[in-house]
Design goal:
The protein contains four helices and two strands; from the N terminus they run ααββαα. The chain has one domain (2-67). It has helices at 2-16, 28-31, 51-57, 61-67, and strands at 36-41, 44-50. It is α+β, with helices and mostly antiparallel strands. It has a two-stranded antiparallel sheet. Belongs to the ABC transporter superfamily. It comes from Marinovum algicola. This is Peptide/nickel transport system ATP-binding protein.
Length: 77
């Protein structure tokens, strides 16, 4: 169900040129629809940048801690 909602959000985003602002604790739901990510811990900005870089080559230990246990979300085409 989550994958279907994400897929629909992305279709609507592409068609209408929308920007979404997600505040999430579940990073698995952030990676797919977001181009940029900002990680905040205890009110402080820990890391921000392009989503692919954050998820694949994060610079902060906090980001790696959040990403490591993250399950992969598969979105239908």
């Amino acid at each position: 169900m989550r994958a279907q909602v994400l897929s629909l959000l992305c279709v609507v985003q592409d068609r209408l040129g929308l920007t979404y602002f997600f505040i999430r604790h579940d990073l698995a739901l952030v990676r797919y629809p977001c181009d940029r990510v900002a990680l905040i811990h205890c009110g402080e900005l820990v890391e921000e940048g392009e989503a692919d870089r954050i998820f694949d080559h994060s610079e902060s230990a906090y980001a790696r801690m959040l990403i490591q246990p993250m399950p992969e979300v598969r979105v239908p085409a």
